[in-house]
Specification:
CATH superfamily: Hotdog Thioesterase
Structural class: alpha+beta
Shape: globular
Largest sheet: 6 strands, antiparallel
Strand content: 25-35%
Order of helices and strands: HHEEHEEHEHE
CATH architecture: Roll
Helix content: 25-40%
Number of helices: 5
Number of domains: 1
Oligomer: single chain
Strand order of the largest sheet: 1-2-4-5-6-3
Distance between the termini: 33 Å
Length: about 160
């Protein structure tokens, strides 16, 4: 379990990464709620920054949240490998199930599969791919019932 300080440091890292690499992420102000070697839980607040005209979360913000949650799993595994590995999401399949009318929590529990993928990329200099899942929920409105699900193909290659 992460301490409040660890969550804050991780959140600041995401904001800094967003400011320097992907400004949309910084704009949405995502917060790291949980992070360990197996799972990442990220929250994007529902605010004027992330809302659509129906006062629910805009689908672009939902996709960005899924991208960051799965990306943090990959970045964590890559950092632990000590190798230079490039990654990108090759494709995404999103299902929007309900309107997200509150803060959205994005959960990715693919740590062990991503670590195995990183090990393959380190061992052999070719591109490897793995599909990872992200589930988006709005606990304040719908409990554990997903409002969206994402299947994203993570593509890695060691430099």
């Amino acid at each position: 379990m992460m301490t409040a300080l660890e969550r804050w440091k991780s959140t600041l890292w995401v904001w800094g990464f967003g400011l320097t690499k992907i400004p949309t992420l910084a704009w949405l102000l995502p917060h790291v709620e949980e992070m360990d070697k197996e799972r990442v839980v990220l929250r994007i607040p529902l605010s004027w920054r992330s809302r659509n005209h129906l006062k629910s979360m805009y689908f672009g913000a939902l996709c960005a949240g899924a991208d960051v949650a799965a990306g943090m799993v990959a970045m964590q595994a890559i950092a632990k490998s000590g190798k230079r590995i490039d990654f990108v999401f090759k494709d995404v399949n999103a299902k929007f199930l309900k309107r997200a009318e509150g803060d959205v929590f994005f959960t990715c529990e693919a740590g062990s599969r991503v670590r195995a993928l990183v090990e393959k990329a380190v061992a052999e200099p070719k591109r490897f791919e793995e599909t990872v899942s992200v589930v988006a929920t709005v606990p304040s409105k719908t409990g554990d019932t997903p409002v969206a699900t994402f299947e994203m193909t993570l593509s890695l290659k060691a430099r």
